[in-house]
Amino acid sequence: MGPQVSCRLEPSPFEREGPTGFSVKISTPDSMSTVAIDLADVKKSYGDRSVVDGLSFTVAAGECFGLLGPNGAGKSTITRMILGMTTPSTGEITVLGVPVPARARLARMGIGVVPQFDNLDLEFTVRENLLVFGRYFRMSKNEIEAIIPSLLEFARLESKADARVVDLSGGMRRRLTLARALINDPQLLILDEPTTGLDPHARHLIWERLRSLLARGKTILLTTHIMEEAERLCDRLCVLEEGRKIAEGRPQELIDEQIGCQVIEVYGGNPHELSALVSSYARHIEVSGETLFCYAPDPEQVRVQLDGRAGLRILQRAPNLEDVFLRLTGRELKD
Ligand SMILES: Nc1ncnc2c1ncn2[C@@H]1O[C@H](COP(=O)(O)OP(=O)(O)OP(=O)(O)O)[C@@H](O)[C@H]1O
Ligand SMILES: [Mg+2]
């Protein structure tokens, strides 16, 4: 039996704009715009609680822009405002050349979305989920069926076309959500933690797929807690804390600016005692749990101080984006 697509159509988050809207082929917003997303002094409050506070940034067409920040920093709220699903308290948002939320439906015609939490129809098959979603864009059944094989191949789900989503692994579901986001051949992808909870194989596959989309000229706005993901994929990043931008730049620029020297991690001793021992040779020192992080312009001098002390494990490495994140947002748990 074929999928019951018609019963899933309302309410559609991707309704076309007005009865005089578009022909069957999906019309998209301004495909020539060199700016994919522009936020100008955007604020969002719930009651008297400010969750996004005067945020401005611009995402150029074709770039991968990352939003980083601790839990509750406002990343998902920002993605929802860009989609027109949450209305900002004040400020201006332009997406693919059109104002949002005023013309959000038109903007969404050119956007593919991977929400933070999968919202697939669990009882439907993989193919049925794609059919239902394509119908939100007013694509015909034939149009959708014509592109399903390429979407399944993209997501490496060819053998699962007729499997119910409830029977798929978490990685497969995430890949299906990504495939689903591509059904309208969007110019812009908004991915809210696309690989959280996935095993390394699934994660690497998705990274490879996202890179191939960037190579095809797509624009990506990505939120993530996985610093390796941000470092590998993002051209530029914006680090948020409590709804405010605390840093913006290219990953390597941020690493150079914020850290700019080797990092020595020391485990196994009393980190506070060790800290006193090496502090005069470090640019900066942090203790997190049982680990001492020592940012050292001259790592040899630090190592000499620690030489001969029993039970220590010492790791010297290049600085990375996780150091930047923790430096900017602190090593304490944020909730
Ligand atoms: N509808 C809502 N009503 C009230 N508060 C909300 C609502 N949506 C979000 N918030 C609050 O806004 C803040 C930002 O939430 P948001 O989900 O945007 O954070 P996030 O950066 O995506 O976090 P995470 O990394 O955990 O996904 C949180 O404190 C959250 O509780
Ligand atoms: Mg979130």
From TrEMBL:
Superkingdom in the source lineage: Bacteria
Keyword Ribosomal protein set for record: no
PANTHER family per UniProt: ABC TRANSPORTER ATP-BINDING PROTEIN (PTHR42711), ABC TRANSPORTER ATP-BINDING PROTEIN NATA (PTHR42711:SF5)
Species this protein is from: Rhizobium sullae
Keyword terms: ATP-binding, Cell inner membrane, Cell membrane, Membrane, Nodulation, Nucleotide-binding, Plasmid, Translocase, Transport
Family membership noted in the UniProt record: Belongs to the ABC transporter superfamily.
InterPro entries: AAA+_ATPase (IPR003593), ABC_transporter-like_ATP-bd (IPR003439), ABC_transporter-like_CS (IPR017871), ABC_transporter_ATP-binding (IPR050763), ABC_transptNodI (IPR005978), P-loop_NTPase (IPR027417)
Protein name stated in the entry: Nodulation factor ABC transporter ATP-binding protein NodI
Molecular functions per Gene Ontology: ATP binding
Domain ABC transporter, residue spans: 37-267
Region ranges (Disordered): 1-21
Pfam families on file: ABC_tran
